[in-house]
Structures are given as C-alpha cells and as structure tokens.
Amino acid sequence: MKERPHGDGAPIETLRAAALRLPGTAEGVACEGTALEKRTIKARGKAFLFLGPTSAMLKLGASVAEATALAAAEPDRYRVGAHSWVTVTFGAGASPPAGLMARWVEESYRLVAPKQLSALLPGGGAPTPAPAKPRKKAPRTNR
Predict the structure, then answer these.
(1) pTM, 2 dp
(2) Where in the chain are the domains?
(3) What is the CATH number of domain 10-118?
C-alpha cells in the first residue's frame, strides 16, 4: 500500500503484529489499486481484520453490544456495520485502549478462523455462543 497510516501508524502496526502472531495467519491486500484498498489479515484464506491507513475493521460476536455502546458515545471513532463488522478509526486524540483492541482482534479471529486454528489458542475453540432459545415441546400423540 502506498498510503501511510496517520501519524506514526503505531495503533495500526500494533494490531497488525498482534493479528499475525495468531496461528495460521497471513497478510494480503483487498481491493488492490482502488480507493478501497486495505491490508487484510487472514486465517486460511478467511479475512478477520482489515487495516486501512487510519482505520481497522473486524467482526465481533459477544462484544458487539460493547462496540454499539462505544459507537453511541464516540460515533466518529466507532461504527457498527452489517453482520457485526465494527470499524474503529484512529486519528487525532486518544487511541482506543490497546487491551480492548487486542481482545477484539482475538474475538474476530475466533469467529472467522477455522475451528482447528482457533482451538490452538489458550482456551481453545470458538467464542461462547449466545444462550439457545428454549424449544417448544412437540405435542404428545397417543399411539
């Protein structure tokens, strides 16, 4: 990519480095040569993190409510989009907490990466799913 992240690019490079430490990850480029060009971090060909010059986009599950609250409080920094993809914009002012971003990167990885890879992480497996809805019991039939 020709464009450099805003400032020294530390938040973007920190996220990139954290994501590339996860098992089976590789870096690529999406929409190369267009205005939408972004670096991608993939796990076996499945992108879980998109890095632009001043933003990051990742998929959330359990933390989407937290992201929604942050988006309401700081709409210029956080945006929750379709299918729980969250965009975080870096720029002037304080960056999002590093611990929050590291947790979100790992959550995105666990949601998108094949189960065999996410099982290699401490705690293994995919994130805890939402509680199941109670099933209706089928009516009994007399035979």
Answers:
(1) 0.77
(2) 10-118
(3) 3.90.1150.30
